[in-house]
Amino acid sequence: MSNNDWTPERIAALMALWSEELPTSEIGRRLGITKNAVIGKVHRLGLPKRRQSPKQELEPADVIRLDNLSADMCSWPVGNPSDEGFHFCGGPKVLGKPYCAKHCAVAYIKPAKVRGNG
Q1: Of 35, 92, 116, 117, which sits 20 to 30 A from 64 (CA to CA)?
Q2: pTM of the model
Q3: Per its UniProt record, what Pfam families does this chain match (predicted)?
């Protein structure tokens, strides 16, 4: 069976996942097909439109955008700057660093001699 075969079982799975309001990319991943294949089949089946996607909903209060990032907040970028959901960590930053402790651990790697490997 190719990835383009829409068996009754596969259609039922698509419909169930669609009703759970999973993103089309996640439905595609679970079914082993592209997001566009999901969208096309949903359209051909006439499935009901869903509520607004999370990107279109109001942002949670804890999402930190550039315009509300302050000097004492972690400036670690989260996501792709070209995406609508792009934001910054915003956690309390480590003194003298631009990031929180979690992101400092990722951003700063000790030289091999300091780690004891040399």
Answers
A1: 35
A2: 0.45
A3: GcrA (PF07750)
